[in-house]
Amino acid sequence: MRIYSWARRLCALLLILCTILLPARASAIEELKVGYVPGTGFVEEDRPGHLRGNGYEYMEFLSGFLGAKFTYIPCVNWWEAGAKLNSGEIDLLPAMPGDYKSLPFARRTDHVIARFPMELVVQEDFTGGHLRLGTLDYNYPTPNLARIAKEHGFSYELITFHEPAAMKNAFTSHAIDGYVQPLLHPGKAERVLALFDRVSYRLLVRQDRSELFARVNAAQDNMLLNQPNIRNRLNDKYERSKGFPLVLSPAEQAYLQDKKVLKVAVLMNSKPYFYQDADGTWTGATKALLDQLAADLGIQIKLVEEKSLTEIHRLLLRGTVDMVADVPCDFSWLDELGLIPTQPYLDIGFVPITKHGAVLPESPKVAAVDGLFETVTFVKASYPEEQILYCKSLEECCQGVSNGLADITYIPRATVPSLLESSSAYNLSADTEQVFASTISLGVAQNADRRLWQILNKEINHLPPGLLTTTLNQGTHEHIRHFSPQYLLYHYPQQAALLIFLIMGIIMGIIYYRSRNHRQQLAAMEQLACRDNFSQLPNMLYLEQHLEELMTKIPTGPAPPACYLALFAITPQDASASRHLLAPPLQEAARLLAAKEWVRSVVAGTVSGELICLCTAQNNRQMLNFAAEFITDLNALQENYAWQAGCCPMTDKNLSQAEAIAAQACQEAREKGAPARFGDKPLEY
């Protein structure tokens, strides 16, 4: 008892310690308050309780490296945010732009959180002259504003505002002619006259919190070591994905007014990039790009249909072509053709094409188009010259692999369906993983005006998000003209696999349904075979099937009961009565027997008017007493019928032998007028 008491006290002590220490451990993470100004495009609440934005995601990533939990406190403006930082109401202030010296009590971290270009927004009816331009008091000085005013032919005076909302309201009411602010919302409807400077956003900490300042700097160092592209990823997600405004200088606008027509050659004449549909009309992703370019710049695009690089180079030297679409963004390679690439607007992944089930030899033959950028940079760099089979087009490359002239070729992933269809090479398979990628851009003729190159770079930044990817998907997934399995597997692999799984599922469902019905029919037949048609009770077959199970349920112990088989037979008092009238009293007797504790199972006998019971009792006399008492009670309930019983032990006897002995004992009881007799025993009740 002393040991038990000591163990109980120890458990109680451990429980108290866990109760005290576990909550403290769960709340050990540091909580820091972060201030922000809504409406600045950096930390935003797009719906109640849901924060998002460039700065919010940056701070959440930083919290993981700092080991702290951030709580965000909204402020009316940056001055209120600075005051809260000074008073200790907030611990960190991210993204305050402009002159940090206006907050002498704050220190800025080493790393820049983000950088945004400044923009000059003017009224739609801008024609020059003297402008009243609004600016926020914490913005950086704008040294480029004087140059921009000179270029666009206007003079200006700066009107200082403390609140962005107040400045926007003044612009809307035409109290000012324009305003200067960081470019945070590229998709707005206002007219952007110029982009200039770049404003940097940093993280501010109070001067006297040197320990927190050191920890935040170390956390930023660690984050940029592990996520060096975090700023670019966030800018791509929140800003560049919306498309930059197209802001042209007066010199660029004058060039477009004089140019009016832009002559373009297309290098990739293949579906889904640039091809002719059934009506002979040019379509594809490149056509959508050129149409968008013509609409944004207000000029006409004239297509020059040339496919070979040699002919395109000759046209460039003559000045017949101003630019070439869909060229690799490689300055060195394009310099030989007389082109300057713009920034890329598309990535093309190349996948290998081989025969179905074919194993590549140690020295495979590679089909490639001579002169293409990917042939020079990848194929020639990966395979010796004697293993390369040069073709005139990508279609010939696919046909060469299909005919066995080559073992492998590399083609753009998006062109796989159309190339395999046009070359009728349905014995080929395309890998799902790209081997290498090429960035695609516009190539501007070297002898063209450099203003065209600048304009096209701005236009690529201005392209609507998803323009090319949407057009590529539309060109790849066209209306089905062929319904062969090969076409479906090549053009719609995921849908075809889903269809196959659906058909297999239906077949498996039908098989399961039929087997289930078959099992139910067998179960019904088995149930019918195990039921007596006369009394609608389980029969001897049922007892034979469940005998072993019933025997195992008999309790064991120091004095286990013995198992007996009892046969109860009914005889009508009126000998002329029909035997069909015996069914109700048999069913009633079976119900009463099933309620007895000494009865394990009740079934109909092999002879109509008999019940067979599997019973338990301590000895033969007790079993005979149970049967006799039940017969006495049953005869009192059913006066029109006479009942007798015969009992037999189940030891070393099978069911049929025990039933025969019990039937003989029952017959003897009927002859002698006794309620029950025990088989093979002279005992009587």
Describe what is shown at a glance:
The chain is α/β, with parallel strands linked by helices. The protein contains 22 helices and 28 strands.
Descriptive overview:
It is built from 22 helices and 28 strands. It is α/β, with parallel strands linked by helices. Strands 12, 15, 16, 17, 18, 19, 20, 21, 22 and 23 form a ten-stranded mixed β-sheet that branches. Strands 5, 6, 7, 8, 9, 10 and 11 form a seven-stranded mixed β-sheet that branches. Strands 25-26-24-27-28 form a five-stranded mixed β-sheet, with helices on both faces. Helix 9 runs antiparallel to helix 16. It starts with a helix and ends in a 7-residue tail after the last strand. Residues 23-27 have low confidence and may be disordered.
SSE layout and pairings?
Layout: H1 2-26, E1 30-36, E2 44-47, E3 50-52, H2 54-66, E4 68-74, H3 78-87, E5 93-96, E6 106-108, E7 114-122, E8 129-136, H4 145-152, E9 154-161, H5 164-172, E10 178-182, E11 191-206, H6 210-226, H7 230-238, H8 250-259, E12 261-266, E13 275-276, E14 282-283, H9 285-297, E15 300-304, H10 309-318, E16 323-328, H11 331-335, E17 339-341, E18 346-355, E19 366-369, H12 373-382, E20 388-391, H13 394-402, E21 408-412, H14 416-422, E22 428-430, E23 436-445, H15 450-462, H16 467-476, H17 485-491, H18 493-529, H19 540-552, E24 562-572, H20 583-594, E25 599-604, E26 610-617, H21 620-637, E27 641-649, H22 655-672, E28 676-678
Parallel strand pairs: 1-4, 8-9, 8-10, 12-15, 12-16, 19-20, 19-21, 27-28
Antiparallel strand pairs: 2-3, 5-11, 6-11, 7-10, 7-11, 13-14, 16-23, 17-23, 18-21, 18-22, 18-23, 24-26, 24-27, 25-26
Helix pairs in contact: 2-6, 8-15, 9-16, 17-18
